Amino acid sequence: MGRISWRSPSNIALVKYWGKKPVQIPANPSLSMTLSRAFTETTLEFRPCSQDEKGPGLEFWFEGRKQPDFEKKIAAYLDSIKQELPFLSDLHLVLSSRNTFPHSTGIASSASGMSALGLCLVTLSASFGGPEPGSADFFRTASRLSRLASGSACRSIYGGYTIWGEMKEIEGTSDEYAVPVPFTVHPVFQDIRDAILVVSSREKLVSSRGGHALMEGHPYALPRYRMANDHLLQLAGAMQTGDMEEFVRITETEALNLHAMMMSSEQSYILFEPGTIHIINAIRRYRKETGVPVCFTLDAGPNVHMLYPGKHETAVRQWIDDELKQYLENGQWIDDHIGHGPVMR
């Protein structure tokens, strides 16, 4: 019997992963920035199953409430990894989880949630001969197992910037797990702020799983995958040299390209809200008028991540209050920044 707790952050992809192969293998590589204040905290309590109980038994609580639908998904995931973690068959698990941000709205709650779960499971596995917590193998295993629950979750295992997806041009990258970027990041990108502008907290129209499925047979899928690969190499170069203009160009192009794929699929979705478009236009106008290198990116939802160097924090926060709050749900936004990765509680 015992309990394990991990706090794991969300991440925002700058080069987007969109489309996948079995099993949870990305169709293209992605590069993301791990956040700090947008996180999930998950506690895993475990005990032996009773004699008449078939393991793994599971109860799932989210923010103090039982969540049967999520519980079914997590139970299916646990069942799928029993061969690798056979001790699960003998245990009853109680998972309690909370977010610091709205879930299912395009702020990558599955990334933070499933990475926190993966870290709890790999920590538990150490008692059964698994990798020692804190070791390179521990984090690599946690990234791989998190990927099987939610692809983007594998990137939240590490702080800073991470790459997921094998690239012959970048040594050490893998489809199986994410890795910290294997190059020195220019100081200008080591203090990036992320103002997460909450246009809508309503659940998005299509799940991430459903969105990825739209790429199957998509007429622009192959050009999209090639573009993502090229963008990642270009972004890696800009992050080493400190080329903010190139960083802005690639980040915004990737965000719009992701939504273009959804809008041009056979079963199409438009996830922008009117406020989303107002904010995108305002960001471009502010950048042109002030010279402050703010830029936007989005996940598969209406909420805007506005990225900018930390030295401009005072001016940008004032601008959000003066102009952008009118487009936000109840004026809500999350003042976040690049983070150091998960923490065991």
What is the element layout, followed by pairings?
Layout: E1 2-15, E2 20-21, E3 25-26, E4 30-48, E5 57-62, E6 65-66, H1 68-80, E7 91-99, H2 109-125, H3 136-149, E8 161-164, E9 178-180, E10 192-197, H4 208-213, H5 221-241, H6 244-263, H7 274-290, E11 295-298, E12 304-309, H8 313-324, E13 333-337, E14 343-344
Parallel strand pairs: 5-7
Antiparallel strand pairs: 1-4, 1-14, 2-3, 4-7, 4-8, 5-6, 8-9, 10-12, 10-13, 11-12
Helix pairs in contact: 2-3, 5-6
In brief, what are we looking at here?
The chain is an alpha+beta fold and 345 residues long.
Could you characterize the architecture of this molecule?
The chain has 345 residues and is an alpha+beta fold. The protein has eight helices and 14 strands. It folds into two domains: 2-184, Ribosomal Protein S5, domain 2, CATH 3.30.230; 187-337, Alpha-Beta Plaits. It has helices spanning 68-80, 109-125, 136-149, 208-213, 221-241, 244-263, 274-290, 313-324, and strands at residues 2-15, 20-21, 25-26, 30-48, 57-62, 65-66, 91-99, 161-164, 178-180, 192-197, 295-298, 304-309, 333-337, 343-344. The protein starts with a strand and ends with a strand. The mean pLDDT is 95.
Q: What is the string of helix and strand elements?
A: EEEEEEHEHHEEEHHHHEEHEE
Number of domains: 2
Please summarize the sheet with the most strands: 8 strands, mixed
Cα distance spanning the termini: 17 Å
User: Could you say what the CATH architecture of the largest domain is?
Assistant: 2-Layer Sandwich
CATH topology of the largest domain: Ribosomal Protein S5, domain 2
Number of helices: 8
Strand content: 15-25%
What's the mean pLDDT score?
A: 95
List unreliable stretches of 5+ residues.
none
* Rg (CA only): 20 Å
Q: Roughly what percent helix?
A: 25-40%
